[in-house]
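I'll show a typical protein example:
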Amino acid sequence: MKTPRPRPRPAWFPACLHRHRRPAFVDDLPTVGPWSDFMRSSLALLVLIVAGSPALAVEPLHARIDTLIAAGLKDFDKVAAPLASDSEFLRRATLDLTGRIPSTSEARAFLDDKAADKRTKVIDRLLASPEYARRMQEYWDVVLMDRRRDVRVPRAAWEDYLRTSFAENKPFDQLVREMLSADGSDPKTRPASKFLLDRTLDPTMVTRDISRLFLGMNLQCAQCHDHPLVEAYKQEHFYGIQAFFTRAFLFPDNTVATAVIAEKGEGDTTFTSVFDKSKAIKNTAPRMPGLKPLSDPKLEKGKEYKVPPAKGVKPIPNHSRFAQLAAAITDKDNVAFRRTAANRLWAMMLGRGIVHPMEFDHPENPPSHPALLNLLGEELVAHKFDVKWLVREIALSKTYQRSSELSPGLEAISPSKFAVAQLKPLSPEQFGYAIMQATDAEPVALAKGQTEVAMQARLAGNLVPFRSMFGTRPGEPEDGYAATLDQTLFLKHGNLIRTLIAQRAGNLLDRATKIADNAAIADELFLSVYTRPASAEEKIDVADALKGQSNRPAALAEIIWAMLASAEFRFNH
Protein backbone atom coordinates (compact mmCIF):
# COMPACT_ATOMS: atom_id res chain seq x y z
CA MET A 1 0.00 0.00 0.00
CA LYS A 2 1.33 3.42 -0.92
CA THR A 3 1.75 5.80 1.99
CA PRO A 4 -0.83 8.60 1.63
CA ARG A 5 0.72 12.00 1.08
CA PRO A 6 0.26 14.23 4.14
CA ARG A 7 -2.08 17.16 3.72
CA PRO A 8 -1.11 20.70 4.68
CA ARG A 9 -1.33 21.28 8.43
CA PRO A 10 -4.02 23.86 9.28
CA ALA A 11 -3.40 26.49 11.92
CA TRP A 12 -5.51 24.73 14.52
CA PHE A 13 -3.62 21.41 14.22
CA PRO A 14 -1.14 20.80 17.10
CA ALA A 15 2.29 21.92 15.98
CA CYS A 16 3.95 19.18 18.01
CA LEU A 17 2.21 16.61 15.80
CA HIS A 18 3.20 18.03 12.45
CA ARG A 19 5.11 14.86 11.56
CA HIS A 20 2.01 12.64 11.96
CA ARG A 21 -0.70 12.05 9.39
CA ARG A 22 -3.92 13.70 10.50
CA PRO A 23 -7.08 11.51 10.39
CA ALA A 24 -9.14 12.62 7.39
CA PHE A 25 -12.45 12.73 9.24
CA VAL A 26 -11.18 15.56 11.49
CA ASP A 27 -11.07 17.82 8.43
CA ASP A 28 -14.70 16.94 7.71
CA LEU A 29 -15.96 18.39 10.99
CA PRO A 30 -17.85 21.69 10.72
CA THR A 31 -15.71 24.80 10.97
CA VAL A 32 -18.30 26.71 12.95
CA GLY A 33 -20.51 26.01 15.92
CA PRO A 34 -19.42 23.75 18.77
CA TRP A 35 -16.40 22.45 16.86
CA SER A 36 -14.09 25.30 17.82
CA ASP A 37 -10.42 25.24 16.90
CA PHE A 38 -9.61 24.13 20.42
CA MET A 39 -12.01 21.19 20.30
CA ARG A 40 -10.88 20.17 16.82
CA SER A 41 -7.27 20.33 17.96
CA SER A 42 -8.02 18.31 21.08
CA LEU A 43 -9.92 15.69 19.13
CA ALA A 44 -7.12 15.37 16.60
CA LEU A 45 -4.59 14.93 19.40
CA LEU A 46 -6.74 12.34 21.16
CA VAL A 47 -7.33 10.30 18.00
CA LEU A 48 -3.68 10.37 17.10
CA ILE A 49 -2.74 9.17 20.55
CA VAL A 50 -5.31 6.37 20.47
CA ALA A 51 -5.10 5.28 16.86
CA GLY A 52 -2.38 7.13 15.01
CA SER A 53 0.75 7.20 17.14
CA PRO A 54 3.91 5.69 15.65
CA ALA A 55 3.53 2.66 17.89
CA LEU A 56 0.08 1.91 16.54
CA ALA A 57 0.46 3.19 12.99
CA VAL A 58 2.64 0.23 12.05
CA GLU A 59 0.17 -2.25 13.48
CA PRO A 60 -2.16 -4.10 11.11
CA LEU A 61 -5.75 -3.00 11.00
CA HIS A 62 -7.04 -5.96 13.01
CA ALA A 63 -4.84 -4.93 15.96
CA ARG A 64 -6.08 -1.34 15.76
CA ILE A 65 -9.65 -2.64 15.68
CA ASP A 66 -9.06 -4.43 18.97
CA THR A 67 -7.45 -1.35 20.53
CA LEU A 68 -10.40 0.89 19.67
CA ILE A 69 -12.99 -1.68 20.75
CA ALA A 70 -11.23 -2.14 24.11
CA ALA A 71 -11.12 1.63 24.61
CA GLY A 72 -14.91 1.74 24.47
CA LEU A 73 -15.53 -0.26 27.66
CA LYS A 74 -14.15 0.19 31.16
CA ASP A 75 -12.09 -2.79 32.40
CA PHE A 76 -12.49 -4.37 28.97
CA ASP A 77 -9.91 -7.11 29.52
CA LYS A 78 -11.67 -8.20 32.72
CA VAL A 79 -15.25 -8.27 31.45
CA ALA A 80 -14.93 -9.17 27.76
CA ALA A 81 -15.56 -12.74 26.65
CA PRO A 82 -12.47 -14.90 26.12
CA LEU A 83 -11.47 -15.97 22.65
CA ALA A 84 -13.76 -18.58 21.13
CA SER A 85 -12.75 -22.21 21.20
CA ASP A 86 -11.29 -23.65 18.01
CA SER A 87 -14.60 -25.38 17.30
CA GLU A 88 -16.64 -22.21 17.74
CA PHE A 89 -14.20 -20.16 15.66
CA LEU A 90 -14.04 -22.65 12.78
CA ARG A 91 -17.81 -22.94 12.50
CA ARG A 92 -18.28 -19.15 12.68
CA ALA A 93 -15.60 -18.31 10.13
CA THR A 94 -16.71 -21.00 7.69
CA LEU A 95 -20.32 -19.81 7.84
CA ASP A 96 -19.36 -16.14 7.47
CA LEU A 97 -16.85 -16.63 4.66
CA THR A 98 -18.36 -19.52 2.68
CA GLY A 99 -21.97 -19.74 3.82
CA ARG A 100 -21.78 -23.33 5.10
CA ILE A 101 -20.56 -25.25 8.14
CA PRO A 102 -17.26 -27.17 8.00
CA SER A 103 -17.16 -30.74 6.81
CA THR A 104 -16.13 -33.36 9.35
CA SER A 105 -12.76 -33.76 7.64
CA GLU A 106 -12.14 -30.01 7.81
CA ALA A 107 -13.14 -29.96 11.47
CA ARG A 108 -10.89 -32.87 12.43
CA ALA A 109 -7.93 -31.41 10.56
CA PHE A 110 -8.32 -28.01 12.19
CA LEU A 111 -8.92 -29.31 15.70
CA ASP A 112 -5.88 -31.63 15.43
CA ASP A 113 -3.64 -28.87 14.07
CA LYS A 114 -1.25 -27.55 16.73
CA ALA A 115 0.18 -24.66 14.68
CA ALA A 116 0.00 -21.25 16.34
CA ASP A 117 -1.16 -19.57 13.11
CA LYS A 118 -3.82 -22.09 12.13
CA ARG A 119 -6.64 -19.53 12.44
CA THR A 120 -4.92 -17.19 10.02
CA LYS A 121 -4.35 -20.08 7.65
CA VAL A 122 -7.98 -21.17 7.68
CA ILE A 123 -9.19 -17.60 7.11
CA ASP A 124 -6.89 -17.31 4.10
CA ARG A 125 -7.99 -20.71 2.80
CA LEU A 126 -11.66 -19.83 3.04
CA LEU A 127 -11.16 -16.43 1.39
CA ALA A 128 -9.23 -18.05 -1.47
CA SER A 129 -11.99 -20.59 -2.06
CA PRO A 130 -14.56 -20.10 -4.85
CA GLU A 131 -17.14 -20.58 -2.07
CA TYR A 132 -16.26 -17.12 -0.76
CA ALA A 133 -17.49 -15.56 -4.00
CA ARG A 134 -20.72 -17.55 -3.77
CA ARG A 135 -21.24 -16.47 -0.16
CA MET A 136 -20.74 -12.81 -1.06
CA GLN A 137 -22.99 -13.19 -4.10
CA GLU A 138 -25.81 -14.57 -1.95
CA TYR A 139 -25.32 -12.03 0.84
CA TRP A 140 -25.20 -8.97 -1.44
CA ASP A 141 -28.03 -10.24 -3.63
CA VAL A 142 -30.31 -10.15 -0.59
CA VAL A 143 -28.95 -6.78 0.57
CA LEU A 144 -29.31 -5.14 -2.83
CA MET A 145 -32.47 -6.78 -4.16
CA ASP A 146 -34.48 -7.71 -1.03
CA ARG A 147 -35.43 -11.06 -2.60
CA ARG A 148 -37.44 -9.34 -5.34
CA ARG A 149 -38.86 -11.49 -8.08
CA ASP A 150 -37.14 -11.17 -11.44
CA VAL A 151 -38.61 -8.53 -13.71
CA ARG A 152 -36.20 -7.57 -16.51
CA VAL A 153 -32.86 -9.16 -15.72
CA PRO A 154 -32.71 -12.96 -15.29
CA ARG A 155 -31.51 -14.11 -11.87
CA ALA A 156 -28.85 -16.39 -13.35
CA ALA A 157 -27.17 -13.48 -15.16
CA TRP A 158 -27.32 -11.26 -12.04
CA GLU A 159 -25.92 -13.99 -9.78
CA ASP A 160 -23.12 -14.69 -12.24
CA TYR A 161 -22.32 -10.97 -12.34
CA LEU A 162 -22.09 -10.74 -8.55
CA ARG A 163 -20.19 -14.00 -8.14
CA THR A 164 -17.68 -13.08 -10.82
CA SER A 165 -17.23 -9.60 -9.34
CA PHE A 166 -16.38 -10.98 -5.90
CA ALA A 167 -14.24 -13.77 -7.35
CA GLU A 168 -12.19 -11.09 -9.09
CA ASN A 169 -12.25 -9.01 -5.88
CA LYS A 170 -13.66 -6.08 -7.83
CA PRO A 171 -13.38 -2.85 -5.80
CA PHE A 172 -16.69 -2.17 -4.07
CA ASP A 173 -16.95 1.38 -5.37
CA GLN A 174 -16.51 0.08 -8.92
CA LEU A 175 -19.25 -2.51 -8.35
CA VAL A 176 -21.64 0.20 -7.18
CA ARG A 177 -20.73 2.49 -10.08
CA GLU A 178 -21.51 -0.29 -12.53
CA MET A 179 -24.90 -0.96 -10.96
CA LEU A 180 -25.89 2.71 -10.93
CA SER A 181 -24.66 3.57 -14.43
CA ALA A 182 -25.65 0.60 -16.61
CA ASP A 183 -28.69 1.49 -18.72
CA GLY A 184 -29.33 -2.09 -19.85
CA SER A 185 -28.68 -1.48 -23.53
CA ASP A 186 -25.40 -3.43 -23.66
CA PRO A 187 -25.89 -7.19 -23.12
CA LYS A 188 -22.48 -7.36 -21.44
CA THR A 189 -23.44 -4.87 -18.73
CA ARG A 190 -27.18 -5.52 -18.57
CA PRO A 191 -26.88 -7.83 -15.52
CA ALA A 192 -25.51 -4.88 -13.51
CA SER A 193 -28.60 -2.85 -14.40
CA LYS A 194 -30.86 -5.20 -12.42
CA PHE A 195 -30.70 -2.88 -9.39
CA LEU A 196 -32.48 -0.14 -11.36
CA LEU A 197 -34.41 -2.08 -14.00
CA ASP A 198 -36.04 -4.54 -11.60
CA ARG A 199 -37.23 -1.59 -9.52
CA THR A 200 -38.82 -0.30 -12.75
CA LEU A 201 -36.77 2.85 -12.21
CA ASP A 202 -39.50 3.90 -9.77
CA PRO A 203 -38.32 7.29 -8.45
CA THR A 204 -39.52 6.80 -4.88
CA MET A 205 -38.27 3.24 -4.56
CA VAL A 206 -34.88 3.94 -6.15
CA THR A 207 -34.33 7.07 -4.05
CA ARG A 208 -35.19 5.21 -0.85
CA ASP A 209 -32.96 2.24 -1.61
CA ILE A 210 -29.99 4.25 -2.83
CA SER A 211 -30.07 6.39 0.30
CA ARG A 212 -30.41 3.53 2.78
CA LEU A 213 -28.06 1.03 1.09
CA PHE A 214 -25.23 3.31 0.01
CA LEU A 215 -25.50 6.34 2.29
CA GLY A 216 -26.82 4.85 5.54
CA MET A 217 -29.82 7.23 5.42
CA ASN A 218 -33.34 5.87 5.26
CA LEU A 219 -35.06 8.85 3.66
CA GLN A 220 -38.38 7.14 2.98
CA CYS A 221 -40.19 9.34 5.50
CA ALA A 222 -38.63 12.49 4.04
CA GLN A 223 -40.50 12.28 0.76
CA CYS A 224 -43.47 14.51 1.64
CA HIS A 225 -41.78 16.62 4.33
CA ASP A 226 -38.68 16.70 6.48
CA HIS A 227 -38.31 13.45 8.43
CA PRO A 228 -40.62 13.63 11.46
CA LEU A 229 -38.26 11.70 13.75
CA VAL A 230 -34.76 12.36 12.41
CA GLU A 231 -33.93 16.05 12.38
CA ALA A 232 -30.93 15.57 10.09
CA TYR A 233 -32.96 13.98 7.28
CA LYS A 234 -34.48 16.68 5.07
CA GLN A 235 -36.91 16.59 2.20
CA GLU A 236 -34.30 18.32 0.05
CA HIS A 237 -32.00 15.32 0.61
CA PHE A 238 -34.60 12.97 -0.84
CA TYR A 239 -35.18 15.08 -3.94
CA GLY A 240 -31.51 15.97 -4.36
CA ILE A 241 -30.82 12.26 -4.90
CA GLN A 242 -33.90 11.81 -7.05
CA ALA A 243 -32.84 14.70 -9.28
CA PHE A 244 -30.11 12.50 -10.77
CA PHE A 245 -32.71 10.32 -12.47
CA THR A 246 -35.90 12.40 -12.58
CA ARG A 247 -35.35 12.82 -16.31
CA ALA A 248 -34.71 9.10 -16.83
CA PHE A 249 -37.42 6.68 -17.98
CA LEU A 250 -37.78 3.17 -19.36
CA PHE A 251 -37.65 2.93 -23.13
CA PRO A 252 -39.74 2.10 -25.04
CA ASP A 253 -41.96 1.80 -21.91
CA ASN A 254 -42.19 0.01 -18.59
CA THR A 255 -44.31 -2.85 -19.94
CA VAL A 256 -41.50 -4.24 -22.10
CA ALA A 257 -39.30 -6.89 -20.49
CA THR A 258 -36.31 -5.79 -22.59
CA ALA A 259 -36.72 -2.10 -21.74
CA VAL A 260 -33.62 0.04 -21.21
CA ILE A 261 -33.01 3.31 -19.41
CA ALA A 262 -33.33 6.44 -21.54
CA GLU A 263 -33.23 10.10 -20.55
CA LYS A 264 -34.76 13.43 -21.46
CA GLY A 265 -32.57 16.48 -21.94
CA GLU A 266 -34.61 18.78 -19.76
CA GLY A 267 -36.84 18.78 -16.70
CA ASP A 268 -36.54 20.13 -13.17
CA THR A 269 -36.99 18.29 -9.90
CA THR A 270 -39.57 20.08 -7.79
CA PHE A 271 -41.15 19.36 -4.42
CA THR A 272 -43.36 20.91 -1.78
CA SER A 273 -43.89 20.04 1.86
CA VAL A 274 -47.33 18.86 2.88
CA PHE A 275 -46.87 20.96 6.03
CA ASP A 276 -46.22 24.16 4.10
CA LYS A 277 -49.51 26.06 4.11
CA SER A 278 -48.31 28.32 1.30
CA LYS A 279 -47.58 25.24 -0.85
CA ALA A 280 -44.37 26.88 -2.06
CA ILE A 281 -42.74 24.86 -4.80
CA LYS A 282 -39.01 24.26 -4.38
CA ASN A 283 -36.62 22.79 -6.87
CA THR A 284 -33.24 21.18 -6.54
CA ALA A 285 -30.31 20.25 -8.70
CA PRO A 286 -28.75 16.78 -8.34
CA ARG A 287 -26.82 16.56 -5.08
CA MET A 288 -25.66 14.14 -2.44
CA PRO A 289 -26.78 15.00 1.11
CA GLY A 290 -24.33 17.41 2.70
CA LEU A 291 -22.46 18.13 -0.54
CA LYS A 292 -22.70 20.89 -3.12
CA PRO A 293 -25.32 20.60 -5.88
CA LEU A 294 -24.17 19.76 -9.39
CA SER A 295 -25.02 22.32 -12.05
CA ASP A 296 -26.22 21.66 -15.58
CA PRO A 297 -24.22 23.20 -18.41
CA LYS A 298 -26.00 25.92 -20.38
CA LEU A 299 -26.93 24.52 -23.77
CA GLU A 300 -28.22 26.44 -26.71
CA LYS A 301 -31.90 25.99 -27.40
CA GLY A 302 -32.32 23.15 -29.85
CA LYS A 303 -29.02 21.51 -28.85
CA GLU A 304 -30.24 19.61 -25.82
CA TYR A 305 -29.84 16.23 -27.56
CA LYS A 306 -27.24 14.16 -29.32
CA VAL A 307 -30.12 11.99 -30.52
CA PRO A 308 -33.44 13.88 -30.38
CA PRO A 309 -36.64 12.13 -29.24
CA ALA A 310 -38.59 10.48 -32.03
CA LYS A 311 -41.05 7.64 -32.36
CA GLY A 312 -39.23 4.39 -31.68
CA VAL A 313 -35.90 6.18 -31.11
CA LYS A 314 -34.11 6.24 -27.77
CA PRO A 315 -33.18 9.86 -27.03
CA ILE A 316 -29.65 10.70 -25.89
CA PRO A 317 -29.19 14.10 -24.23
CA ASN A 318 -26.05 16.21 -24.61
CA HIS A 319 -25.92 16.44 -20.83
CA SER A 320 -26.89 13.43 -18.73
CA ARG A 321 -27.79 13.85 -15.07
CA PHE A 322 -28.21 10.09 -14.80
CA ALA A 323 -24.59 9.57 -15.88
CA GLN A 324 -23.47 11.64 -12.88
CA LEU A 325 -25.22 9.48 -10.28
CA ALA A 326 -22.67 6.69 -9.93
CA ALA A 327 -19.71 9.06 -9.67
CA ALA A 328 -21.50 11.29 -7.16
CA ILE A 329 -22.37 8.36 -4.86
CA THR A 330 -18.80 7.01 -4.82
CA ASP A 331 -17.00 10.37 -4.87
CA LYS A 332 -14.13 10.70 -2.38
CA ASP A 333 -15.90 13.65 -0.77
CA ASN A 334 -18.98 11.57 -0.07
CA VAL A 335 -17.89 10.26 3.33
CA ALA A 336 -21.28 8.62 3.89
CA PHE A 337 -20.56 6.08 1.13
CA ARG A 338 -17.37 4.70 2.67
CA ARG A 339 -18.84 4.79 6.18
CA THR A 340 -21.87 2.82 5.04
CA ALA A 341 -19.83 0.27 3.09
CA ALA A 342 -17.49 -0.31 6.04
CA ASN A 343 -20.40 -0.48 8.48
CA ARG A 344 -22.25 -3.07 6.42
CA LEU A 345 -19.18 -5.30 6.04
CA TRP A 346 -18.61 -5.03 9.79
CA ALA A 347 -22.24 -6.02 10.45
CA MET A 348 -21.97 -8.97 8.07
CA MET A 349 -19.11 -10.32 10.16
CA LEU A 350 -20.07 -9.18 13.68
CA GLY A 351 -23.86 -9.40 13.47
CA ARG A 352 -24.40 -5.71 14.27
CA GLY A 353 -23.29 -2.41 12.77
CA ILE A 354 -21.12 0.16 14.50
CA VAL A 355 -24.02 2.38 13.47
CA HIS A 356 -27.14 0.46 14.42
CA PRO A 357 -29.61 0.27 12.76
CA MET A 358 -27.38 0.56 9.70
CA GLU A 359 -29.88 2.66 7.75
CA PHE A 360 -30.02 5.44 10.33
CA ASP A 361 -26.61 7.06 10.47
CA HIS A 362 -27.27 10.52 11.91
CA PRO A 363 -26.15 12.67 14.89
CA GLU A 364 -28.93 11.43 17.16
CA ASN A 365 -27.90 7.81 16.49
CA PRO A 366 -24.09 8.06 16.61
CA PRO A 367 -21.71 5.14 16.03
CA SER A 368 -20.90 3.07 19.10
CA HIS A 369 -17.22 3.54 18.23
CA PRO A 370 -16.84 6.68 16.06
CA ALA A 371 -13.06 6.47 15.70
CA LEU A 372 -13.32 2.85 14.60
CA LEU A 373 -15.94 3.54 11.94
CA ASN A 374 -13.86 6.40 10.57
CA LEU A 375 -10.76 4.21 10.61
CA LEU A 376 -12.50 1.40 8.71
CA GLY A 377 -13.83 3.86 6.13
CA GLU A 378 -10.46 5.52 5.64
CA GLU A 379 -8.65 2.19 5.35
CA LEU A 380 -11.22 0.94 2.86
CA VAL A 381 -10.50 3.99 0.70
CA ALA A 382 -6.72 3.64 1.18
CA HIS A 383 -6.97 0.03 -0.01
CA LYS A 384 -9.09 1.01 -3.01
CA PHE A 385 -12.29 -0.53 -1.63
CA ASP A 386 -10.75 -3.98 -1.38
CA VAL A 387 -13.60 -5.92 0.26
CA LYS A 388 -11.66 -9.14 0.74
CA TRP A 389 -8.83 -7.28 2.50
CA LEU A 390 -11.22 -5.60 4.95
CA VAL A 391 -13.14 -8.82 5.63
CA ARG A 392 -9.83 -10.59 6.33
CA GLU A 393 -8.69 -7.90 8.77
CA ILE A 394 -12.00 -8.08 10.63
CA ALA A 395 -11.80 -11.89 10.78
CA LEU A 396 -8.25 -11.73 12.16
CA SER A 397 -9.26 -9.43 15.02
CA LYS A 398 -9.78 -10.69 18.55
CA THR A 399 -13.05 -8.77 18.47
CA TYR A 400 -14.36 -11.13 15.78
CA GLN A 401 -12.86 -14.21 17.40
CA ARG A 402 -14.34 -13.74 20.88
CA SER A 403 -16.64 -16.35 22.35
CA SER A 404 -20.39 -15.88 22.37
CA GLU A 405 -20.40 -16.83 26.05
CA LEU A 406 -19.20 -14.59 28.88
CA SER A 407 -17.00 -15.93 31.62
CA PRO A 408 -19.03 -17.30 34.59
CA GLY A 409 -20.21 -14.68 37.06
CA LEU A 410 -20.07 -11.71 34.69
CA GLU A 411 -23.13 -9.64 33.85
CA ALA A 412 -24.47 -9.26 30.32
CA ILE A 413 -22.80 -6.55 28.25
CA SER A 414 -24.53 -4.32 25.72
CA PRO A 415 -24.11 -5.76 22.22
CA SER A 416 -22.93 -2.32 21.07
CA LYS A 417 -19.67 -2.86 22.99
CA PHE A 418 -18.63 -5.86 20.85
CA ALA A 419 -17.11 -7.49 23.94
CA VAL A 420 -18.87 -10.78 23.29
CA ALA A 421 -19.77 -12.43 19.99
CA GLN A 422 -23.36 -11.90 18.84
CA LEU A 423 -25.69 -14.78 18.05
CA LYS A 424 -26.54 -14.45 14.36
CA PRO A 425 -29.46 -16.40 12.86
CA LEU A 426 -28.38 -18.33 9.80
CA SER A 427 -29.68 -16.89 6.57
CA PRO A 428 -32.01 -19.21 4.61
CA GLU A 429 -29.11 -20.04 2.31
CA GLN A 430 -26.71 -20.73 5.19
CA PHE A 431 -29.34 -22.85 6.94
CA GLY A 432 -29.98 -24.94 3.84
CA TYR A 433 -26.30 -25.46 3.09
CA ALA A 434 -25.60 -26.25 6.75
CA ILE A 435 -28.24 -28.99 6.89
CA MET A 436 -27.05 -30.49 3.62
CA GLN A 437 -23.45 -30.44 4.86
CA ALA A 438 -24.27 -31.78 8.34
CA THR A 439 -26.26 -34.74 7.05
CA ASP A 440 -23.88 -35.31 4.13
CA ALA A 441 -26.95 -35.77 1.97
CA GLU A 442 -25.51 -33.23 -0.46
CA PRO A 443 -21.93 -32.35 0.54
CA VAL A 444 -21.51 -28.61 0.11
CA ALA A 445 -17.73 -28.42 0.46
CA LEU A 446 -16.18 -28.38 -2.99
CA ALA A 447 -14.92 -31.78 -4.11
CA LYS A 448 -11.71 -32.09 -6.10
CA GLY A 449 -12.27 -31.12 -9.71
CA GLN A 450 -15.73 -29.69 -9.04
CA THR A 451 -16.61 -26.13 -9.97
CA GLU A 452 -18.54 -23.81 -7.70
CA VAL A 453 -21.06 -23.04 -10.46
CA ALA A 454 -21.79 -26.74 -11.03
CA MET A 455 -22.18 -27.39 -7.33
CA GLN A 456 -24.50 -24.39 -6.90
CA ALA A 457 -26.67 -25.62 -9.77
CA ARG A 458 -26.82 -29.08 -8.21
CA LEU A 459 -27.94 -27.75 -4.83
CA ALA A 460 -30.28 -25.00 -6.06
CA GLY A 461 -33.43 -27.12 -5.85
CA ASN A 462 -32.88 -27.91 -2.17
CA LEU A 463 -32.43 -24.23 -1.32
CA VAL A 464 -35.79 -23.12 -2.72
CA PRO A 465 -37.86 -24.34 0.27
CA PHE A 466 -35.45 -22.73 2.73
CA ARG A 467 -35.65 -19.39 0.95
CA SER A 468 -39.43 -19.63 0.77
CA MET A 469 -39.85 -20.62 4.43
CA PHE A 470 -37.15 -18.56 6.15
CA GLY A 471 -36.67 -15.58 3.83
CA THR A 472 -38.56 -12.32 3.96
CA ARG A 473 -41.33 -11.49 1.53
CA PRO A 474 -40.12 -10.13 -1.84
CA GLY A 475 -39.18 -6.47 -1.61
CA GLU A 476 -38.79 -6.42 2.18
CA PRO A 477 -35.32 -5.87 3.71
CA GLU A 478 -34.06 -8.89 5.63
CA ASP A 479 -33.59 -7.62 9.14
CA GLY A 480 -33.88 -9.46 12.42
CA TYR A 481 -35.12 -12.94 13.25
CA ALA A 482 -38.59 -14.20 14.06
CA ALA A 483 -39.50 -17.88 14.31
CA THR A 484 -42.90 -18.90 12.95
CA LEU A 485 -45.15 -21.92 13.32
CA ASP A 486 -44.71 -22.70 9.62
CA GLN A 487 -40.95 -22.89 10.10
CA THR A 488 -41.38 -25.25 13.06
CA LEU A 489 -43.69 -27.51 11.06
CA PHE A 490 -41.29 -27.43 8.12
CA LEU A 491 -38.43 -28.65 10.31
CA LYS A 492 -40.49 -31.21 12.23
CA HIS A 493 -42.64 -32.72 9.50
CA GLY A 494 -41.26 -31.45 6.19
CA ASN A 495 -40.41 -34.12 3.65
CA LEU A 496 -37.22 -32.33 2.61
CA ILE A 497 -35.63 -32.49 6.07
CA ARG A 498 -36.54 -36.14 6.53
CA THR A 499 -35.22 -36.93 3.05
CA LEU A 500 -31.91 -35.22 3.79
CA ILE A 501 -31.55 -37.18 7.03
CA ALA A 502 -32.56 -40.55 5.50
CA GLN A 503 -29.87 -43.20 5.39
CA ARG A 504 -27.83 -43.53 2.24
CA ALA A 505 -24.33 -44.81 1.62
CA GLY A 506 -21.69 -42.72 3.38
CA ASN A 507 -23.98 -40.06 4.84
CA LEU A 508 -24.16 -39.14 8.53
CA LEU A 509 -26.91 -41.57 9.48
CA ASP A 510 -25.17 -44.38 7.60
CA ARG A 511 -21.84 -43.70 9.33
CA ALA A 512 -23.44 -43.45 12.77
CA THR A 513 -25.39 -46.70 12.25
CA LYS A 514 -22.17 -48.58 11.57
CA ILE A 515 -20.46 -47.38 14.78
CA ALA A 516 -20.87 -49.75 17.70
CA ASP A 517 -19.62 -47.57 20.56
CA ASN A 518 -22.21 -45.04 21.75
CA ALA A 519 -19.59 -42.49 22.82
CA ALA A 520 -18.02 -42.63 19.36
CA ILE A 521 -21.47 -42.21 17.81
CA ALA A 522 -22.00 -39.06 19.88
CA ASP A 523 -18.68 -37.62 18.74
CA GLU A 524 -19.49 -38.33 15.08
CA LEU A 525 -22.91 -36.69 15.38
CA PHE A 526 -21.71 -33.63 17.26
CA LEU A 527 -18.69 -33.05 15.05
CA SER A 528 -20.83 -33.32 11.91
CA VAL A 529 -23.69 -31.13 13.15
CA TYR A 530 -22.13 -28.76 15.69
CA THR A 531 -18.45 -28.83 14.62
CA ARG A 532 -17.40 -29.91 18.10
CA PRO A 533 -16.89 -33.10 20.12
CA ALA A 534 -19.70 -34.19 22.41
CA SER A 535 -19.35 -33.44 26.11
CA ALA A 536 -19.37 -36.23 28.69
CA GLU A 537 -22.98 -35.42 29.58
CA GLU A 538 -24.03 -35.39 25.92
CA LYS A 539 -22.46 -38.78 25.38
CA ILE A 540 -24.58 -40.13 28.23
CA ASP A 541 -27.69 -38.54 26.69
CA VAL A 542 -27.01 -40.22 23.34
CA ALA A 543 -26.40 -43.56 25.00
CA ASP A 544 -29.66 -43.23 26.96
CA ALA A 545 -31.58 -42.38 23.78
CA LEU A 546 -30.23 -45.48 22.07
CA LYS A 547 -30.65 -47.86 25.02
CA GLY A 548 -33.01 -50.71 24.24
CA GLN A 549 -33.84 -49.41 20.77
CA SER A 550 -34.66 -52.25 18.38
CA ASN A 551 -34.49 -49.89 15.39
CA ARG A 552 -31.22 -48.02 15.91
CA PRO A 553 -31.28 -46.22 12.52
CA ALA A 554 -34.70 -44.74 13.34
CA ALA A 555 -33.54 -43.69 16.81
CA LEU A 556 -30.39 -42.12 15.37
CA ALA A 557 -32.46 -40.28 12.76
CA GLU A 558 -34.53 -38.73 15.56
CA ILE A 559 -31.37 -37.62 17.38
CA ILE A 560 -30.02 -36.02 14.20
CA TRP A 561 -33.34 -34.27 13.57
CA ALA A 562 -33.40 -32.89 17.13
CA MET A 563 -29.88 -31.53 16.70
CA LEU A 564 -30.70 -29.87 13.37
CA ALA A 565 -33.78 -28.22 14.92
CA SER A 566 -31.85 -26.92 17.95
CA ALA A 567 -30.94 -23.30 18.63
CA GLU A 568 -27.26 -24.23 18.65
CA PHE A 569 -27.51 -25.28 15.02
CA ARG A 570 -29.89 -22.51 13.90
CA PHE A 571 -27.55 -19.72 14.98
CA ASN A 572 -24.02 -18.71 14.11
CA HIS A 573 -22.35 -18.22 17.48
In short: The first strand starts at residue 248 and ends at 251. The longest helix spans residues 452-470. Residues 200-328 form one domain. The beta strands are 248-251, 260-263, 269-271, 282-284, 305-307, 316-317, 424-425, 571-572.
